[in-house]
Specification:
Layout lengths: L12 H4 L3 E2 L3 H8 L19 E3 L3 E2 L6 E3 L29 E4 L11 E6 L4 E8 L12 E2 L5 E6 L4 E6 L6 E4 L4 E9 L2 E8 L2 E8 L6 E7 L4 E3 L2 E5 L4 E4 L5 E4 L7 E9 L5 E8 L11 E7 L5 E3 L15 E7 L5 E6 L10 E6 L5 E5 L8 E4 L1
Antiparallel strand pairs: 1-12, 2-7, 3-27, 4-23, 5-6, 5-28, 6-7, 8-9, 9-10, 10-11, 12-13, 13-14, 14-15, 16-17, 17-18, 18-19, 20-21, 21-22, 22-23, 24-25, 25-26, 26-27
């Protein structure tokens, strides 16, 4: 899935949730590492891994569950044009996961981007590496297809969307006519979603990976979209709207506690019935330095939410840690969630993978591949 997991911004909402691509390479630096508010000691990346790196699943203590009723959409469930949810895994068994590690420029070894697969032995196996953008300045994070074989991005200087193989071959260029552009996401491994226009007036477009099949899905949209499980999501502080390319839509009003605003949709099941959302305290002045993140499993039909227990009890305090960035909804109702253990003021994220029961209880945690800090779940 591609929900912009490599970008960590703070309020105001027009910056936090739009996914808008600005016209300078400086904003790329902000998206990939600048401190949101204040300063913090930079994290030191571990050396890049070899063919595999160990990732041990560690049992975590049970934590209390919090549920609340809410209101949801009334549109009947409709399956998107992608495969259904992954097969169920046992209570503490992990499904097969795929991870993307971003290319890092300016480093001593100038590490390439990499695709990893988590094995049954709980290690990360290197699947492929490449430099799809070939050193070009990007105007936002690289979007990698769910199968890890393609990438899409927007070039700063040329103002164009580029889609290519992960190795940089078979490039297809889509001009954006000088308009501002939403960061691309993948509807599935063969179709890309992006937006053209300006703040609060976006045209949302889907296109095939070879540059054909362009289709306008919506106009005059207030925010840029993100994608998960083949569903397109847009959020406000208190609502979530999802749709698929065939036009099935649902507007959901989760009954999260007062004083919280929805930051992102981290995951959507293939049938559109279950979502994972991240919310945070509304801080005066838009500073995210002292926000508390709270993550929820959301039922799309009713709007009922179940809070996902924080991995670290310290995250219950206003430390700004523990935001759900990405995730996978399993067929048994459980979840695998990519959580950022860093703060908005850190120079880089500190990702952990958390296996949740449907009740929101933590079952196990696992590390991500060692090396560059920027990366995320695929598929």
């Amino acid at each position: 899935m591609n929900l912009g997991p490599f970008t960590h911004t703070t309020r105001p909402a027009s910056i936090r949730r739009s996914g808008t691509l600005a016209g300078t390479a400086a904003l790329l630096l902000l998206a990939f590492g600048a401190a949101a508010c204040g300063t913090a000691d930079p994290k030191t990346a571990a050396p890049a891994p070899a063919e595999s790196a160990t990732a041990t699943a560690t049992a975590a203590p049970a934590a209390g569950d919090t549920s609340a009723a809410g209101t949801g959409g009334s549109v009947p469930d409709a399956a998107p044009a992608v495969a259904p949810s992954r097969p169920a895994a046992g209570l503490t068994q992990w499904p097969q996961l795929t991870w993307y590690t971003a290319e890092e420029h300016g480093q001593k070894q100038n590490d390439p981007a990499r695709i990893w697969r988590r094995t049954a032995a709980e290690t990360w196996e290197l699947v492929r590496s490449g430099r799809p953008e070939n050193g070009k300045a990007l105007n936002g994070p690289l979007a990698v297809s769910p199968d890890g074989r393609r990438a899409a991005w927007v070039e700063v200087s040329a103002r164009r969307l580029v889609i290519s193989g992960f190795d940089g071959t078979k490039r297809h260029v889509i001009p954006n006519q000088g308009q501002r552009t939403c960061a691309p996401s993948w509807l599935d491994s063969g179709r890309v979603l992006y937006g053209l226009g300006r703040e609060k007036d976006w045209t949302i477009i889907a296109i095939n990976a070879d540059g054909t099949g362009r289709k306008v899905l919506a106009t005059h949209q207030a925010t840029c979209p993100t994608v998960s499980g083949g569903w397109i999501a847009q959020v406000t502080d208190r609502t979530v709207r999802i749709r698929n390319e065939r036009g099935s839509t649902r507007s959901i009003s989760p009954r999260i506690p007062a004083g919280l605003g929805i930051d992102r949709v981290a995951a959507i099941s293939g049938n559109g019935r279950t979502l994972v959302i991240s919310a945070s305290t509304l801080s005066p002045g838009g500073c995210g330095c002292s926000e508390r993140f709270r993550n929820y499993r959301l039922d799309a039909a009713s709007g009922a939410v179940t809070e996902l227990a924080p991995v670290d009890p310290a995250w219950k305090k206003p430390t700004g840690r523990g935001e759900a960035i990405d995730g996978v909804v399993l067929a048994d109702g459980g979840l695998v969630v990519q959580v950022n253990a860093g703060t908005p003021a850190d120079d880089a994220p500190a990702y952990r993978l958390v296996r949740y029961a449907a009740s929101g209880r933590v079952l196990a945690t696992a590390s991500v591949p060692a090396g560059q800090p920027w990366g995320g779940l695929l598929g």
